[in-house]
Amino acid sequence: MSEGILPKAYAFHEVESHWYAHWEEYGYFHADVHSSRPPFSIVIPPPNVTGQLHIGHALNDTIQDILCRYKRLKGFEVLWIPGTDHAGIATQNVVERQIGQEGLSRHELGREAFLEKVWTWREKYGGIIINQLKRLGASCDWDRERFTMDEGLSRAVRHVFVRLYEEGLIYRGKRMINWCPRCMTALANIEVEGEEVDSRLYHIRYPLANGKGALVVATTRPETMLGDTAVAVHPEDPRYASFIGQKVILPLVGRLIPVIGDAYVEREFGTGALKVTPSHDFNDFELARKHHLELLQVIGENGAMTEAAGVYAGLDRYACRERILKDLEKEGFLVKVENYKNRVGHCYRCKSVVEPMQSLQWFVSTKPLAEKAMEAVREGKTRIVPAKWEKDYFIWLENVEDWCVSRQIWWGHRIPAWYCSECGKVIVAMDDPTVCPECGGSRLEQDSDVLDTWFSSGLWPFSTLGWPEETAELRQFYPTSVLVTGFDILFFWVARMMMMGLHFMKDVPFRDVYVHALVRDAQGHKMSKSKGNVIDPLVMMDEYGTDALRFTLTAFAVQGRDVKLSEERIEGYKHFINKIWNASRLVLMNLEESGELPEIPAKPAGLVHRWILSRLQRVINEVDASIENYHFNQYAQSLYQFIWHEYCDWYLEMIKPDFYGEDPSVKALAQSVAARVLEQILVLLHPVMPFVTEEIWQKLPQTTGTIMKASFPQFEAERLDAEAEEQMDIIMNVVNGIRNIRGEMNVAPATRVEVVCLCERDFEKDLLLRHSGTVSDLARLSRLEVGRSGEVKKPRLAAGMVAKHVEVYVVLKDILDFESESKRLQKEISKLEKELGITQKKLSNEDFLQKAPEDVIEKEREKGARLGEKMEKLRHHYEIINTLKDSASAGE
User: Fold this and answer.
1) Residue 711 near residue 682 (C-beta atoms within 8 A)
2) For the chain, does the N or the C end have fewer beta carbons within 10 angstroms?
3) What fold, for 725-811?
């Protein structure tokens, strides 16, 4: 422990860098696998190696750090495994752009040289986000940092692929997949983001081959009509019953295609006649299989039309759309065009519109794995918090499709499959084969594809612990205790980890899944660079300190509700840190010569001591329950209320006379209680504010080592004192009542006033008489009179209120000039009436309500409500002042 008083200002930049380096140097984050303590483990959701710390990371990792620091204080052996994800498509895109600036493409470089470039890039830039996590205070076990393509994890990935293949759960086949023409790779269904766009619905006439009429179909993608192989109608649709079995002529192409009947067709959509393009629509593909239709691919992997598109071959798909529309109109096939909103799939990485198409890919058969993943949650082996996310989890797993795991890129885990050029055998093996086991041939070629990034991250909870080896870490820390994640990767990642963990480890990968919401701006809008409302956590940490950012995120992390964040809120919690700092300085300055602090009896002398110790016990319980049940906002708010409003504003203010008094025993008790409560406050606060708590901890007497090695405060039932809490509640209500009256009546803070308290019960009367000095000091009184009605006369020219069975009157005679105050209030009311009138006029303007953005309207409504509330208070005060003015004039 270092000695000395805290400086006047908290210099968070120096404190944060100093203590984080100290914690790392002394290995305080490192988990001991041989420890006899109960284990607690978390695996970090691995950020992309390309990533920068954003506000979502800041929330996610702050919550994890709270849990880890809390569990260490509770006596657990904590392992928090950090690491990064190789982010196949994203990283390859970054490096391709880099070499593109040199005038090169990856194909010109060749696979081996390109991958060398990627590894070089990873070594240089891949650790940026790790250093940013350290800035956030993340207490990860950095000695055990992992990367999804390090040697150990690569071995685990290969082991899983081979086993699943041997078990018949991985296969290669030609199926409909989502294809990104920009990234030039297959995507899993959940890697496609549906986005509502302004589109067009084109009505196109398909003439009957017999010349007796036509069918009109409606489509948003006229370019795909070149691949139509049927038109489908509902078999019970009377409009089209006679058309089923006939043929129509495909416009512009001239090919004859059948009219089929199928109950899949929605009679209410468009015209009720559906063009069937099996190679470019998942549902149409199923119709083609059912009705044995031809499959014709007219859009290629690069997004351009194929040779099968005839005269349109080579055109980009959107250029082809424009050409086709012109040709349809020219030939008289385009009936009409309607504006239409529909959801269009976009690549989750590059945001290009994806193209459904048939492709030969590798798939995981997920249904057998999904059943166990659902069963584990139903049986309570894994709990999802908040529970509302269970429904989404089950819906997705109940309707899960086979998972396309092959990607047509170079950066990633290469699929361990080889093809024999001589006999065509497919060889999947742990070790690279040199000869074909079927024919003995040596001309073997490895599959060029790599595995989906989510395949390797699906193994994260056990591969990071050394699996498939039976390591000490695996035995001690699997299953992990909790996973903290955003709802947006509940399916991408959580469900897949559940499937893989249960299949390979025969146990769930985590006991709890805590799902947090999004961080939005103060108005509840999603943050985006285009809107200019992005809050950069690195900038906020530089400006206000890491502890202030962490506490703000925690205070607004309500289960199931998005976090609404603003810079003003972060600044507000910086003031809270300053409050803690200044309170600690006050305590420490009064401990300088105290020497050894005496032990505190269970029920010490002095109401205020018994009260603060009792309140501390309740807060210890609240903090414990809040963190254990993932109510992080309640954890933060309990401490904020207790520290600022109870410990600082009341307790420390009330014991100041004890610090400066003559009685050494009274002074020693005040010093001891103030210091002991502060010590426990720091430990309770440490999980969310690690830096400031460590700095103050070092200055306290009778503390040793780091706060990270402290013990979480024990609940002491014998210190609970309901009577002390009730008595203090009365005193605080009376003082607050006096303060409120002073504020409302515009009494200067330095002016001392007379107060009369009328009590109908002896309990309140005796209490206020015993503590009249305290009440007078806190409320700045010149005189306090307490008694029953009849014993004490209700004062003239006073403003009053009721506080806990006590009538409180502040005497305003000779304090206020009622005439001047009346005029001042009237002037303020007139000004406010004008301002409120402008707002009300705006809100009653239909043109404003229809044209203004919703957030602007909402701000105006909030302003109107705020002004209305202020107006109500002013008028109330005006009435009181005028009553007092009239009474003074009447000489009462």
Assistant:
1) no
2) C
3) hypothetical protein PF0899 fold (3.30.2320)
